[in-house]
Amino acid sequence: MEKLSKRIYCQKCSRMVCKRVPVTLEGVETYALEIKHRGYELRTFMAVITCPVCRSCYRISGDKGIEAKITNQYFEAVKK
């Protein structure tokens, strides 16, 4: 059975931050993150992504999706 891509949305503002796309490595099907922005395209298995709208920060993996919400220390320091 073929896996389908899955969209990952910010938990705070519901903006799409990336997609999980199926990849095959050495015969094993898994997911990778696909991040597109202004013609730039990046695929990776794990990333820390900051939402461009609300500045929420998430640790995201291809297999599990959002694993944890991270405190955005840089944004909090600038805001003060």
Describe this structure in a few short sentences.
With 80 residues, the chain is mainly beta. The protein is built from 1 helix and 7 strands. The strands form 2 sheets. The chain has a 4-stranded antiparallel β-sheet with strand order 1-2-3-4, with no helix packed on it.
Explain this structure to me?
With 80 residues, this protein is mainly beta. The chain has one domain (6-79). The chain is 9% helix and 56% strand. The protein contains one helix and seven strands, in the order E-E-E-E-E-E-E-H. It has one helix spanning 73-79, and strands at 6-9, 16-25, 28-37, 40-44, 46-50, 57-61, 65-70. The strands form two sheets. It has a four-stranded antiparallel beta sheet, with no helix packed on it. It has a three-stranded antiparallel beta sheet with strand order 5-6-7, with no helix packed on it. The radius of gyration is 14 Å and the shape is globular.
